[in-house]
Amino acid sequence: MPKKLRSLITPWSIWLAILGIILLAGLVAGLLVFWKGLVITNLTDLVPWGLWITIDLSSIALSAGAFSLCAGVYLFGLKRYQPIARTATFVGLIGYSMAMLALILDIGRPDRFWHALVYWNEHSLLWEVTMCVMLYLTVLVFESMPIFANFEWLRKRFPKLAHRMKGLHHYAPVLAIIGLGLSSLHQSSLGATYGVIKARPFWFKPEMSVLFMLSAIVGGISMTLFASMLASRLTNKAKVNDALIERVALFVGYLLIGYFYFRVWDALAQTYTYDPGRNEGLHVMTKGPLAFNFWIGEMLLGMIVPTFLLLYKPTRQNPFWRMVGLFLVAAGVVAFRWDTNISGFLVVMPFVPGQAIGYTNYFPSLVEFLSGGAIIAYGLTAFSLGVKYLRVVDHTLIEGEHEKVHVKATETVTI
Amino acid sequence: MSDSKLSRRDVLKLAGTAAATAIGLRVVKKAHANESAPAGERQWAMVIDQNKCIGCGYCVLACRAHNDVSPDITWNPVLEAGKVGNKNVYLPRPCMHCAKAPCVEVCPVKASYYRSDGIVMMDYDRCIGCRYCEVACPYQARSFNWDSFTANNPAVPEWGDPEVDRRPRGVPEKCSFCYQRIDRGLALGLEPGVDPDATPACVVVCPVGARLFGDLNDPESAVSKALRENPSYRLREDLGTGPRVYYIPAVAEKES
């Protein structure tokens, strides 16, 4: 092999090549879906939402670090966590754009996605979610402007524009308020999207929205911390302040206890209610096709193990075990989303009097896997590029303070 | 400035509160108006007599032919519903045209909507294909067009044409109470439920007269009479959806 060629083969280029292959395969699969229609998926009239919806829900949930950390930094005055909030914002931007991609694949008429913005049904949770997600994505674009201003080429070629973009940082507190409002609305409404469906008793319960909100905050923060730590291990472009991450990881550990309590109360105690169909749903989840996912994915690896890893000081202080813990939390939230979506469908409620409750099944098709995989690969690519070129994970980079000007009411102010 | 007078700030605050209240009221009012079907002069309903239904499936075929439904989809399946005595009982299931339809409530773009005569309609051009209605419907009354339907429809006879357009790929479809027959019939001065040309195809074709159609607001209509004179039930009444399809339950024939 010539020397020149060999020098091109770096871990970075291999990583990009792997991502490129997944993206290409997914692009072909995605185009097939647009060409042939949803008939080439394994979705049916009984299970109309499957893998793509899980990717959509999960990427929105794991983006929740953006609003929660921004609120912490800019509204509750935890200023020293600002570098983490910046990473979270970028992760959020990627996550929400991933969700958009998944939705475009999933809806039957992707050319009409804009109808939700024009024809309003204020009564529909999906309408509310669509509006909030669109608006919040806009907020995230504004919040990410100072990050994009770090792009070397942009700073050299358009210094004025880069300066302007950087200046948007001064609106961060305002954007944090809007982001907090919009996120509280749609993170919980995504749960309510399921929670209001009285035709499916396993979903029809009021705590659905609370759980979605809580799990999103836990999972979103974990995702951001995990991504930061992993990046800092793989490249020297990413610089993290380990003490900062450890503090937030401890906070995640405490939150996990609350999440665990609520999830057990919701899933196993069924909020102390009984309706036909509920026990069947519980059966599907604890003993049926979702049992492994629920007991191992959600409960053991998603909550119990990471709670220990993040609250027990020696494991928390060890970067490797902390990273494992944070990853498990994020994966556990994905498992929760999958279980929630599928459990409601697998139990088929009868409407003919006297008929027994039925069951159905769903396993995604290859096309769903390939296109879904490409959406995830897109997210990884965007994050990798961000780390390399935009200093997304750089805890040494501190944005300017928001200066407070103390003035007396009678004083004339000149700035 | 004395204390009794309103400052400019107070006025602005008051104005803001008033505006917010007005907007709030408007939203509440709109949401309320959205809750159930508006009650027009006519309220169409269907009564299906399970004593009479023999499960022949003619209604399924007639529905297919008139509405150009693909062989993959059935708007109006005839389901087996156990036995009474030694007689098989069947349950044909059209769209229930609920007064409080979950599909209408959840549709993000108002592609599902109520007509003032109670029919739950679909605007196939507005639909984005999210399938939330399918998720929400307790009666599995909606079927999604996973594939495009371009082939000849085997249910459509050579001597006739379907009455409505074919639905495109990517939208869910369902029974519409043959709104096209009702509307055209009314325009021609016919009475739905009485004149075959103004009555849903499944009702007209039924060889044993198991289906009745008519106006619930008219006490003399076939459906009103049937509901007065017979015990009846609706599917999943516990959900509070208020279906407009009533069933007369099958009873065991007396031993002669």
Give a brief description:
Chain A has 415 residues and is mainly alpha-helical. Chain A is 69% helix and 1% strand.
Describe this entry's structure for a reader:
The complex is a heterodimer of chains A (415) and B (256). Chain A is an all-alpha fold and 415 residues long. Chain A has one domain: Formate dehydrogenase/DMSO reductase domain (Formate dehydrogenase/DMSO reductase fold), CATH 1.20.1630. Helix content of chain A is 69%, strand content 1%. Chain A is built from 17 helices and two strands. Chain A has a two-stranded antiparallel ribbon with strand order 1-2. In chain A, helix 3 (51-61) runs antiparallel to helix 5 and helix 5 crosses helix 11. Chain A is globular, with a radius of gyration of 23 Å. The model of chain A has no long low-confidence stretch (mean pLDDT 92). Chain B has one domain (36-248): Alpha-Beta Plaits (2-Layer Sandwich), CATH 3.30.70. Helices cover 27% and strands 15% of the residues of chain B. In chain B, the strands form four sheets. Chain B has a three-stranded mixed sheet with strand order 8-1-9. In chain B, strands 2-3 form a two-stranded antiparallel sheet. In chain B, strands 4-5 form a two-stranded antiparallel ribbon. Chain B contains seven helices and nine strands; from the N terminus they run H-E-H-E-E-H-E-E-H-E-E-H-H-E-H-E. By secondary structure, chain B is α+β, with helices and mostly antiparallel strands. Chain B has helices at 8-33, 58-67, 102-106, 132-136, 179-187, 201-205, 222-229, and strands at residues 44-49, 78-84, 87-92, 112-114, 120-122, 143-144, 172-173, 211-215, 245-248. Chain B is globular, with a radius of gyration of 23 Å. Residues 28-34 of chain B have low confidence and may be disordered. In chain B, a hairpin with a 5-residue loop joins strand 4 (112-114) and strand 5.
